[in-house]
Amino acid sequence: MARVEFRNVVKEYHDEKRGTFTAVAGSNFVIEDKEFVVFVGPSGCGKTTSLRMIAGLERQSSGDIIIGDRIVNELHPKDRDIAMVFQDYALYPHMTIKENLSFGLKNLKRPKAEIEKKVMDASNILGLTEMLDRKPRELSGGQRQRVAVGRAIVRDPQVFLFDEPLSNLDAKLRIQMRVELSELHKRLGATIVYVTHDQVEAMTLGERIVVMNKGRIQQIASPGVLYNEPQNMFVAGFIGSPAMNFMDARIENGNVHIEGASFALTDAMVKGLRAYEGKEVVLGIRPEHIYGEEFAEKMNVSKENSMKSNVQVIENLGAETLLYFRVGARMVTARVNPETEARIGQMMTFVFDRNKLHFFDPATEERIL
Ligand code: ATP
Questions:
Q1: Interface predicted TM-score (ipTM)
Q2: Mean pLDDT in residue range 318-333
Q3: Which residues form the ABC transporter domain (predicted)?
Q4: What is the reported pTM?
Q5: Which of 41, 93, 160, 354 is most buried by a 10 A CB count?
Q6: 20: Cβ below 6 Å to ligand 1?
Q7: From ligand 1's centre to the CA of 229, what distance in Å?
Q8: Atom 17 (ligand 1) nearest CA
């Protein structure tokens, strides 16, 4: 069993400038055996620190870390049965690829035949057999990245830890490596913990995602749940691109009012928002759920919830077009069909899909429904 668990794990750093700084503020989670879990969040949110604590490269200030069925708090990194793949690959430049792959096992004084077999197996899986005699500098970025993964595979660890392994690759290669990593996970059936600041990478790779901000876990869920039911405004704004639109709103008599428009709520929404009758809320809607009039007609979306506004900015991205318009002081984005005809300054009708509205408490920023 290769599950990983954090129980109230805190990490504080002490330095002269900041005094005591809490990088991880009491994390709790369970990563199940064979699961692919991604830690995601903006720079400085504590994701790398969390990963390094699993590896044993950082010691937590308090709390327990469990790998498999052991509390590993006191265990040295080499005794934790994990393998970590770093952002910069950390390959030995003077060694051949084969030597790089065998190095860890040689250090462990494993029999020669076993090392040979494991290196060959890993090279086959990763398509490295042709380059075993080359040095790292003779490989492309993507190939080097594969060697770094290969070095982890030969160790046959309980848990793989990845720290932003694709960040040094160009956009096309990142997409290719993303697919390869997903396939590798299926093939190895291993537990993987993966750190990235890129929400698209997190959404495509993670079976579950741990969203972090300022040292605190914001939500742990599958990509679908994060997208459809974000726990708070941070998660709602972080997951999805372009980001969810937020508007100041007020609930009154079964309607939600924003500046310049008023939308009828569904019965379920009226019920869920009962405590907010007559009060301010934040209305959220993703750009892909605001439609042009024609598209709404075609898709049979009720045009009851629509508003008129002038198009302020148009961004044509080829497969889709982003239209920006104002609601009060806020700029709102609609992601529309590229065939939608629009000119800057044109008055357009924007249809808000009423089944896709999100509501947040303006004080706590938590999801209401
Ligand atoms: P990034 O995406 O930029 O790597 P991150 O989410 O991985 O960010 P961490 O590296 O975990 O963030 O750092 C979390 C916080 O802890 C940051 O504010 C960082 O400055 C601080 N921190 C990390 N290591 C140390 C250290 N050795 N001493 C003091 N503060 C540290």
A1: 0.95
A2: 94
A3: 4-239
A4: 0.93
A5: 41
A6: no
A7: 29
A8: 44
